Amino acid sequence: MSTSPKGVAVVTGASAGIGAIYADRLARRGHDLILVARNQARLDDLATRITGATGRVVKPVAADLNNRADLKRIETILATDTRITMLVNNAGVGALEPLLQSDVDAMEAMIGLNVTALTRLAYAAAPAFVGRGGGAIINISSVVAIAPEVLNGVYGGTKAFVLALSQSLHKELVDKNVRIQAVLPGATATNFWNAAGGSHENLPSNIVMRSDDLVDAALAGFDQGELVTIPSLPDAGDWTAFEEARQTLMPNLSLNSVAARYRTADAA
Predict the structure, then answer these.
(1) Residue 248: inside a domain, yes or no?
(2) Structural domains of the chain, count
(3) What is the SS3 assignment for 207?
(4) CB-based contact 166:142 (threshold 8 Å)
(5) What is the CATH number of the domain that holds 145?
(6) Predicted local confidence at residue 196, as pLDDT
(7) What angle do CA 49, 52, 58 make, to 5 degrees?
(8) Second label for 129, Cα 20 to 30 Å away, from 33, 78, 114, 264?
(9) DSSP letters of 34-68?
(10) Is 268 a member of any domain?
(11) What is the separation of C-alpha 6 from the centre of its chain, rounded to a whole number of angstroms?
(12) Among 171, 75, 167, 80, which residue's Cα sits nearest to residue 116?
């Protein structure tokens, strides 16, 4: 792989949908690519198309991130390839059915991909980026991270984890020249819905964003230095207010006395 002035971006879940669009956009921005997904044929086809359109060097790496050996292979690439400057943690699956109608084994597999694999890749990339003097980790979360009532609760829980991890990583790495961004898509026209047993075509058209628009907005948010990007949110002040309300809670979340409303008559 050649050396790009912008370095190499690793994109997981890259064979289709949001991941494939990230791959295209990052190549057009000057990144060489390592594309990770399970389907080798789709990866090869995407790599050929991107190289033909942009001239960038693209390496497809077939891997199932729920397979420990495959996951370890990608971790090793992130930790040892000094050309890598960006990780797009996009691989994930969703669920639409409520908990009482869901298969617990499928939920565990979803946690494995959405949480465990994403975390291990971030753990591989972050210290490597610090050692190299900088880098960026983009974690694809979801609006259900802050609205878990909307879809399956376990899915919402995995995406809330991604948001919380991103916020913590930002605090830890902000002074080490490592950028963190959490992207919170709403309903997006991708194969996510089919894979989860539904269809975005059954949703009101006014709430479904084109995947190209989503990625372009997310990258615009990255360029603007956002930690959290919600592509459809009209007023950035709404997120600021939400975050300020959270910060207001901070001083009182851990105190040595019980709040007055919880004191029993005997304790008074």
Answers:
(1) yes
(2) 1
(3) helix
(4) no
(5) 3.40.50.720
(6) 46
(7) 70
(8) 114
(9) EEEES-HHHHHHHHHHHHHHH---EEEEE--TTSH
(10) no
(11) 21
(12) 75
Q: Which long-range contacts (CB under 8 A, 24 or more apart) does 196-203 make?
A: 196/93, 196/94, 196/95, 196/96, 197/95, 197/96, 197/97, 198/96
Question: Residue 102's Cα: distance from chain center in Å?
Answer: 23
> Which pLDDT belongs to residue 203?
56
The torsion region of residue 134 among left (phi > 0), alpha (psi -120 to 50) and beta comes to left
Tokens of 200: 């975005």
In angstroms, the CA 40 to CA 63 distance is 8
What is the phi/psi pair of residue 64, to 5°? -100, 110
CB atoms within 10 A of CB 216: 14
Q: Taking the mean position of all CA atoms in its chain, how far away is CA 1?
A: 25
Give residue 112's domain range: 8-262
pLDDT at 201: 59
Spatial contact of 79 and 124, defined as CB atoms under 8 Å apart: yes
**3 inside domain:** no
pLDDT, tens digit, for every residue of 71-126? 999 999 999 999 999 999 999 998 888 888 999 999 999 999 999 999 999 999 99
Cα–Cα dist 159/153, whole Å:
10
Does residue 180 fall inside a structural domain?
yes
Residues with a catalytic annotation lie at 155
Global pTM exceeds 0.85: yes
